[in-house]
C-alpha cells in the first residue's frame, strides 16, 4: 500500500502555514514534506508536527532567492560557502523536526555557463553535504528535473543523477524519483 506525505508547500495553501499541519492530519496523512520551512522557527515547526501527530519526511536546503528564479545552490560556482551555510541551517531544522532526508537543489546553469565547472562544484558540494548529514545518520537527496519545468536546471535525467551519486561515492546520497519531474 503506498504511503504519501503531504507537501505543505503545495497542499492546503488556502490556510496559513501553521494550520496546514492539522489539515494534513485531518485528511489522513501521517507524514508531511516541507519545501522551504525557513520563514518559521524550527521549534515552531516541531510543535506543529507534534500537535498534529505528523512526521516530517523531508525538506529542501535553502534554494537561494527563489522569488528571482534561483533553484538551488549546489552546482553554482562562487556560491560554495553559501551552500555550506545552507547545509548547516537545514540540519538545524532537520534536528528540531526529526527529519531523515534533505534535498539539495542543484541550480540553474546560466546561458554560456561551463557545465564542467558546475559539475565539479556540484560533486564537491554534494560530498561535503553528504558527509555532514552522515554525522546524524541523515540521507541527502538529489532530484533530476526536466528542462520544461526548470529551463537550464543542471540535473535533468535519472541516468545523470545516478552517475553523480556514483562519482560522489557517499552511501547516504540517494536519487529522489519524482514522476512529475521526470
Description:
This protein has 182 residues and is α/β, with parallel strands linked by helices. It has two domains: 1-60, no CATH class; 63-182, TIM Barrel (Alpha-Beta Barrel), CATH 3.20.20. 38% of the residues lie in helices and 13% in strands. The protein has helices at 17-26, 42-52, 80-97, 115-134, 158-168; strands at residues 5-7, 31-34, 55-60, 101-103, 139-142, 173-175. Helix 2 (42-52) links the parallel strand 2 (31-34) and strand 3 (55-60). Helix 1 (17-26) packs parallel to helix 2 (42-52), helix 2 runs parallel beside helix 3 (80-97) and helix 3 packs parallel to helix 4. The chain is globular, with a radius of gyration of 16 Å.
Number of domains: 2
CATH superfamily assignment of the largest domain? Divalent-metal-dependent TIM barrel enzymes
| DSSP strand tally | 6
Task: Name the CATH architecture of the largest domain.
Answer: Alpha-Beta Barrel
Backbone structural class: alpha/beta
Total of helices: 5
Give unreliable regions as ranges: none
End-to-end C-alpha gap: 23 Å
The name of the CATH topology of the largest domain is TIM Barrel
Overall morphology = globular
Q: What is the beta-strand fraction?
A: 5-15%
Largest sheet: 6 strands, parallel
Helical residues, percent: 25-40%
Estimated radius of gyration = 16 Å
Topology of this protein?
Elements: E1 5-7, H1 17-26, E2 31-34, H2 42-52, E3 55-60, H3 80-97, E4 101-103, H4 115-134, E5 139-142, H5 158-168, E6 173-175
Parallel strand pairs: 1-2, 2-3, 3-4, 4-5, 5-6
Helix pairs in contact: 1-2, 2-3, 3-4
